[in-house]
Amino acid sequence: MDTEDLEWETVDTEIDYSCPGFDIRLDSVQFPDGSDGEYHYVDKPGAVVILPFTPQGHVVVIDEWRQAVDHVNRGLPAGTIETDTDGDVEATAARELREETGYVAGSFEHLTTVEPSNGVTNSVHHHFVATDCEPAASQNLDHNEDIQVATTEFDDLLAGILDGDITDARTAVSVMQYAMAHSVAEWLGVTGLREPALDHAQVWNMMGVSFG
Q1: Whether pLDDT at 160 is above 60
Q2: Of 100, 121, 130, 167, whose CB neighbour count within 10 A is largest?
Q3: Residues with Cβ < 8 Å from 136, sequence gap 6 or more?
Q4: pTM for this entry
Q5: Do 17 and 75 have their domain in common?
Q6: pLDDT exceeds cutoff 80 at 192
Q7: Is 9 within the bounds of a domain?
Q8: What would the pLDDT profile of 104-123 be if each residue is shown by its tens digit?
Q9: 82 φ, ψ to 5°?
């Protein structure tokens, strides 16, 4: 199928509403059949999400109040990419980890990049695994952040997602992506699953999967 037949043409675009953190953008579009329409979506900068492991193999997690869903949410540290200053996404991940948890990582590895809800927002999330994370500073929270820091076993974090006790989507993506890749590595007889030393492309190559 020729996907060009599915493309909309953006004729005009404007900010319909603006507030701290995001804008609501209105696109005037032309559909493939030639008819015209409008489309609203949340225009928001991208974000980083960090899956941080301590040297002992525990995961650093945060408990944070989430006003939109009216409850405390357990998840991974994450934060917005500041478009004016953040040219290095990995450096952004290091900053957000330090500010939200007080932990500093020995190294970072890119895990995946996803569009978390591309029907309603253009925000892109960059997920990282951080290793050798140690407490090294105090939290430096924004005025509207209420966060407590804890550590947990990775298996408990994964079980919480599978059981539905942990509902944060960003956390679920990171944890399940990591678990899937390292379960494949375990199936292939690769050791050291707590350490993300095996590049994902290497895993697929070992399985005989080729991407172009």
Answers
A1: yes
A2: 130
A3: 98, 102, 103, 104
A4: 0.84
A5: no
A6: no
A7: yes
A8: 999 999 999 999 999 999 99
A9: -80, 110
Structure tokens at 188: 């292939």
Helix (H, G, I), strand (E, B) or coil at 211: coil
Among positive and negative, which fits the CA dihedral 136, 176, 93, 81? Answer: negative
Same structural domain for residues 68 and 167? yes
In this prediction, residue 99 carries a pLDDT of 93
**Can you spell out the DSSP letters for 44-98?**
---EEEEEEB-TTSEEEEEEEEETTTTEEEEE--EEE--TTT---HHHHHHHHHH
CA proximity to 108, closest of 151, 152, 53: 53
Rg of the Cα atoms in the chain: 20
Q: Give the N- to C-terminal CA distance of the chain in Å, as an integer.
A: 19
The token pair at 48 is 């980083």
**Closest to 57 measured CA to CA, from 203, 196, 207, 212:** 196
Residue type, 202: Q
Helix (H, G, I), strand (E, B) or coil at 37: strand
Residue 151's nearest CA partner among 202, 76, 85 is 76
212 occurs within a structural domain? no
Kindly state whether residues 128 and 92 are assigned to the same domain.
yes
- Structural domain of residue 165, as residue ranges? 47-206
Please give the C-alpha separations between residue 186 and each of 23, 77, 180, 206, in angstroms, as whole numbers: 44, 27, 10, 12
Q: Give the Cα separation of 93 and 109 in Å (integer).
A: 10
C-alpha–C-alpha distance, residues 28 and 11, integer Å: 5
